[in-house]
Amino acid sequence: MRVTSVLVWVWIVMAGAVDAAPETSLKPVARAEKPTTASIPTLSDFRPTARPAVLEAALVEQLTHQFQAEADPGFQRALASQIGMTTRAFAALSPQAIGLSSRPNMRPNGIVEKAMAQRRARAKGAVCGDPDIQGETVGFVPGRLSACGIKNGVKVRSFSGVTLSQQAILDCKTAKAIKTWVNKGMKPAIGNTGGGVSQIKVAAHYACRTRNNQAGAKISEHGKGRAIDISGFKLRDGRQITLLQDWDRRDTGAMLRKMHKRACGIFGTVLGPDSDRFHKDHFHFDTARHRGGSFCR
Ligand SMILES: [Zn+2]
Predict the structure, then answer these.
(1) Which long-range contacts (CB under 8 A, 24 or more apart) does 85-94 make?
(2) pTM value surpassing 0.85
(3) Separation of CA 220 and ligand 1 centre (Å)
(4) Average confidence (pLDDT) over 235-252
């Protein structure tokens, strides 16, 4: 009954009939005073008081007309959409609407600011357009020999949150390949052992020299910023895994062989302790192109 009477009232307001309505027509009863903070309002606090009998009779007559009109499907649709709008607006005007609605929890400002500061710092330190490669842009790196040098070099400090024992000067193609290997080769191979890798031991990066420092040999990929030598890893618990000591051990050796294998395909050349006497203590990764695909040994 109460819901129906509210709907009727809303319908009258929408029809613009309030001013023209006769005295006997429905008149909404004033709501109770705004609740004080001393007591939480209940539904009964806002219930209209009983109408006099004469108004009750008028209401019955009005509802009869109303129900007849509402039997028409077209009218029903129109009324439903109009009341849908009006009841929402009505609810918003209700004095208890704000107080009773659920309020979203605000994030503490400190957390938002910290997250935004971290984001800015990551964006600022990103090189090669990748926030997971942190360092600084070096640009042109001149070579002592004409075959050496890098056109657009970067000096990398960390890959995907793992720092390097020394900053590595590389070109972006190589930096991106190393990042891929860190995520798809190194991290999965080590897993949670020792809490994960905290540092990559970089034995060499850019250096204008011949291959394996042999006189008369070709210029190494290191002289072009396309290579990195990795001699081991420091774990979060302080343990060290080195190529020299762990390659032939059962557990840590398996991890090293796994990440060596995964490097094939990511890099053009992959050399490890089993390749030759020059690589007993490090991985050599470079992005040189070979006709037959990756060279892995
Ligand atoms: Zn090397």
Answers:
(1) 86/10, 86/13, 86/14, 87/10, 90/10
(2) no
(3) 8
(4) 97
